[in-house]
From TrEMBL, chains A, B:
GO MF annotations, alphabetized: lyase activity
Protein name: NDP-hexose 23-dehydratase
Pfam families, per database record: Hexose_dehydrat (PF03559)
Domain dTDP-4-dehydro-6-deoxy-alpha-D-glucopyranose 2,3-dehydratase: 26-226, 267-466
Length: 473, 473
């Protein structure tokens, strides 16, 4: 498949909500059956009860005795970006690159994607939909001692499938130190062995599920966000757009190049480079017991204020995972953050307001983030110190809410870490004062920047939610 | 200027060899006059005679007492890429991001660039042509105690000029630890104060100078390499190509998108991501006096074999630089390396053979390099262990040599570090066996990958040399 064929196939799949599974009820029934059949037991345990996890010295950190998986380390952050010049925090260090892979196949003329019903201990509802493969290197080198992940060979063995997309993408820079995963979409032209935990779905079905809370997991969202909904070089076939809601048509069209884009790609690169060069962030390793404002107890590493997040231990018992019983640390989050994009029709083309984002785990300085990304703490702050544009989401006024759902972050590392994701469209022509570190981009421009790893995961999460054929967005 | 206007202006400037300076004789005469008038005195001195530079402890390294500029540190490298699994070496650590900036202005309807005749202590011929501004952060924060670099304000003060290009670009990963500079081209629409060390030149004049040995310095070459010679989205005006040599026309056309490109951009990203994920390189800091195979004496840090490079000290006396007298370490290189691209018409479109390059200083794993980049040592190795494709450059046979000149690497850090740069075109239809870590790209594709910092400096150096209107290339 050439790029242009693949992109036409993506658009067709996106507008299709009836596939191998004929309707959303069938999708949800399969999901619910799996949920009834298999269950993780997740219990909070003190650190001392974690099997093979321990506090390691020099500097003091929490890690697996094998040296594999990940460690939780302390850092001090110093920066000239944003309102807080310095803070300490724990952070996850997981240097290895994992694979988040989506297997695709044309069935009945429509591209389908093989989704997995997968349990993760940190999800509020345990079971969510993941991509076909979600494998850390420890996973597939089998440190767990379990089976190799199903379907992994289509992503690792040359010739087993055609690669449509293979990109290194950053994860949460506020929680992970320089972490990246390979995001892959590969296509086969033949049947593959089935399994009860996996189902073929159209892109439209996945988008429809993204309209609900806590079903499509973060790993699936980041891969889906990289799938372009139209060919940037070719306006979408108007026949395919027929009957779609007007905002949805604007979304598809915003993927296409146009001379009505507010900024050129060179200007966007210059804006990002300027931000990278202007703002610095120094990150120094510190022992976990020497972080200012943080306390290490037998049960948790938490902030004195009770805010932000804490490191806890959990013990897991499972029937269907690669290993049946294990324990591990997780980053527990209380409350819901808010992640949102403002968008607006400008000269007829839908633009999204991006904001430069600099976080301690970023591998290469500033990344492109959504208009707003803040914790519940910040969202509840008084009007005087509220994050910029917060009001536009909490009280949209003349704006139109195009997307509003709660999604979970990676349940293999985070415990009950959920954000409210919103997209709000401003009325055309309404003027907005924006600071230097914000910029309007089309979806095609965001997609082109994302292809090179410049767009952060919060922004990608929102991009994934766009284009649902039966919703406002 | 919009992207497309700028790109048409670049192409016109590239084809023009008569500008403010009417011909190449005038350019060379100005350069020679400056060379006669001003001179650096450069003397080798022992490390103990370096003013304000010293060996600093924990780990032992060579640095400036202010903590500014750069340090020379030791590293151990371990990798699964290439034939040598592990080695030790000194490397330059210069974490700050400098500016390499070219000021442009339309004069008589043609875009001109303000080039500087600049002395650097490490150049074999001391004087070379640099971009308008070549400033480290130490430079412009004036650690030298000297003047701020001339014309710097056009690159740092918003509103003084229009930014055409502003990108972070990596430098030699074999010699610099994660070093990057901002490469900028900005344009003004009015006169700026002149200075005897600066002259306005067309892109065609710069390209013509690149056909000669050791005139256009590395910093100028990397900025010039990022200037697209045609608009990727619009075939070049055939009138502008009239009268150009046939290879030159193929060069301009190779910047334009086409459905005859051998690989799609998604496939190119997938290839690079695959390389980044597959090959690792661990870099561990080591004290300079504990590097296997290296000896530290009063005069130099050198390899026991006498090969590779050595760290030396020089004392410099100057009349026209920011500071009039200083001393510093440089990396001395003996012999000339070879850097080359193979290219070939495929389906009528000129493609270049890129090779994945993994070096210890790379910030993000594999980068896109030229077909060959090797030291004189490697180039002289016996046939059995010669670098891949070496023979195609040393004995082109049916191939056509399109470019062949010796260029100097950064004279502010390197002493007599020169490479022979070559571009050889293979006959159309001639089959070449290429390994997995090589890939054919058009110039437009290389340019688009370079925009995001994926193309290494050796490859960019060669791209800069393409498009000279009066030469074979």
């Amino acid at each position: 498949m050439r790029d242009s064929d693949a992109r036409r196939a993506f658009l067709r799949s996106c507008r299709t909500v009836s596939g191998v599974l004929p309707d959303m009820d069938t999708v949800l029934a399969w999901f619910a059956a799996k949920d009834r059949r298999d269950r993780f037991e997740v219990r909070r345990v003190p650190f001392a009860a974690l099997d093979q996890w321990d506090f390691l010295p020099d500097p003091l950190r929490l890690g697996h005795v094998s040296g594999k998986f990940f460690t939780i380390e302390g850092i001090r952050v110093e920066t000239d970006f944003g309102p807080v010049p310095s803070w300490d925090q724990p952070i996850i260090n997981q240097p290895e690159v994992g694979i988040l892979g989506l297997l695709a196949r044309e069935i009945g003329g429509t591209l389908h994607f093989l989704m997995q019903a997968k349990m993760e201990p940190g999800n509020v509802n345990i079971l969510q939909l993941s991509p076909t493969v979600q494998a850390t290197r420890s996973n597939y080198s089998r440190v767990h001692g379990g089976r190799a992940p199903r379907y992994l060979e289509y992503f690792t063995e040359p010739g087993r499938a055609t690669i449509l997309l293979d990109q290194l993408q950053p994860e949460q820079g506020a929680r992970f130190l320089r972490k990246r995963n390979r995001n892959m979409v590969v296509v086969v032209d033949h049947d593959v062995p089935g399994h009860e935990d996996f189902r073929w779905m159209t892109l439209g079905q996945i988008k429809a599920l993204l309209g609900r809370d806590d079903i499509v997991n973060m790993d699936a969202r980041t891969v889906v966000s990289l799938i372009p909904l139209a060919d940037p070089d070719e306006p979408p076939d108007e026949g395919l757009l027929d009957g779609l809601p007007e905002f949805c048509r604007a979304v598809f069209r915003s993927y296409c190049r146009s001379d009505r884009e507010r900024h050129t790609m060179d200007a966007i690169m210059a804006w990002l480079t300027g931000g990278k060069a202007r703002y610095g962030m120094d990150v120094t390793p510190l022992p976990l017991d020497r972080l200012r404002g943080w306390q290490v107890t037998d049960e948790a590493i938490g902030h004195e204020s009770g805010l932000y997040f804490s490191v806890i231990g959990v013990a897991v018992e499972a029937r269907t995972r690669e290993a049946t019983r294990w324990s591990q640390p997780l980053l527990h989050h209380q409350g819901q953050g808010l992640v949102g994009f403002l968008c607006q029709r400008q000269d007829g083309v839908l633009h999204f307001l991006a904001r430069g984002s600099l976080e301690p785990g970023n591998r290469d300085g500033m990344e492109i983030g959504p208009t707003i990304a803040c914790s519940e703490v910040a969202a509840r702050a008084g009007r005087s110190c509220a994050p910029l544009f917060l009001e536009r989401f909490l009280d949209p006024g003349e704006g139109t809410v195009r997307y509003d759902a709660v999604q979970s972050e990676e349940g293999g590392r985070f415990h009950h870490f959920r954000n409210r994701y919103m997209i709000v469209e401003l009325p055309e022509g309404q003027d907005l004062d924006i600071p230097d570190h914000c910029l309007w981009l089309t979806l095609g421009q965001l997609w082109r920047m994302a292809r090179h790893g410049h767009v952060n995961i919060e922004a990608r999460n929102l991009l994934a939610c766009l284009g649902a054929p039966e919703a406002g967005s």
